[in-house]
Amino acid sequence: MRRGRTSRMMKVLYVLFRMEIMKKEGLADLEDHAEKIILYAKLVYTRNNVDFRMALKQQEEQFEKESEEQGKPFIEVGQN
User: Fold this and answer.
1) pTM of the predicted model as reported, rounded to 2 decimal places
2) Within 13 Å and on the Cβ side, how many CA atoms surround 24?
């Protein structure tokens, strides 16, 4: 699997994972879509706060790394 394709898949999984958390927290039924609210807040904080930007990048890299590690056995089994 190419890196770009894997990265896109990880982003999709990340969004789905976050949506599931928002449902459990009761945020999915807001009048304005919860993901839009979070994405806008992320945009504002990323633009204005260097510490937030660095922490967010670290969190996203950690999520991608852990997700790839969990998916390795499945990929390896499928290739045999």
Assistant:
1) 0.47
2) 6
